[in-house]
Amino acid sequence: MALNGKVILITGGTSGIGEGCARHFAALGARVVIASNQQDRGDALESELRGAGREARFVFTDVSCEQSVQRLVESALQSYGRIDGVHCNAGVWAKGKATEFDEAVWEKVMNVNVKSVLWTAKHAVPVMEAQGSGVILITTSVAAHIGFPAHALYCASKAALEAIVRCLAVDHAGKVRVVGISPGTIDTPMLAATCEGWDKPVAELYAEVARRIPVRRLGQPEDIAKAAAFLLSDDAGYINATSVVLDGGTMALPPW
Fold first, then answer.
1. What gap in Å lies between CA 3 and CA 58, rounded to an integer?
2. Which one is catalytic: 80, 154, 206, 238?
3. How do 85-88 and 31-36 pair as beta strands?
4. How far apart are CA 23 and CA 47, in angstroms?
5. 206 is a catalytic site residue
6. Could you tell me if 26 and 49 are in contact, meaning their C-beta atoms sit under 8 angstroms apart?
7. For every one of its 256 residues, what pLDDT tens digit does the chain have, with 9 covering 90 and above?
8. Reported pTM
9. Of 75, 193, 215, 238, whose CB is crowded by the most CB atoms within 10 A?
10. How far is residue 172 CA from its own chain's centroid?
């Protein structure tokens, strides 16, 4: 995979899918800039990767704040002089129907899931255009296409990201390639959080879900990382303005 030597910035890079991607990109020889608001986890991940001979930097970042995102981009440039790819992966989850919606939930979900991508694009795209090339990869979700019960705002935020993929690709055509990666049921801390309040143990819930997925297992962060590395590489140079679904076949299931 042609990521060797490329500078890849990843938001939400200290947990779940983001951590799996950061580890995989670094193992492929990328120079990884890991952004997160988890200082201790970020410091530990940077130390671990660098101790293994990988090239990695952690930058504490609040992706919902423009100034913080701007500092992240500037830090990446100071360290490596360019940015070849950005993986906008930071995300949060909140449960609730539209009838349970309030301003606090809106701010929590939309600021991190949507506004952060726009801030990142605002500051990273000019760098890529000046270089003459670059890739933006956005983690969306099958939630953009499925009406998950009690997930109104989360689903809306992920649908917005699908639109942003298309708009960025059109607005910055010829210089910046923009793609989405749309995970299904992935074994992450966020998935575990969605199981809170159920009357069954998490392991039992996971086993039931796995039996329904056509590949008969939950996805792992490494599954997303391998596809993400391909999409960020030059090998995927003709994939643009679209999202790749990685759901093990979930969306092919009938409703019975």
1. 19
2. 154
3. unpaired
4. 12
5. no
6. yes
7. 589 999 999 999 999 999 999 999 999 999 999 999 999 999 999 999 999 999 999 999 999 999 999 999 999 999 999 999 999 999 999 989 999 989 999 999 999 999 999 999 999 999 999 999 999 999 999 999 999 889 999 999 999 999 999 999 999 999 999 999 999 999 998 888 777 777 788 888 899 999 999 999 999 999 999 999 999 999 999 999 999 999 999 999 877 6
8. 0.95
9. 75
10. 20
Say which residue the tokens 């575990």 belong to: 192
**Token pair 């660098």 is at which residue?**
50
Distance between CA atoms of residues 124 and 178, nearest Å: 12
Distance between CA atoms of residues 24 and 30, nearest Å: 9
Are 180 and 166 contacting, i.e. CB atoms less than 8 angstroms apart?
no
- Spatial strand order of the sheet with 242-246 comes to 55-60, 31-36, 7-11, 85-88, 134-139, 176-183, 242-246
Q: Which two tokens stand for residue 240?
A: 């643009």
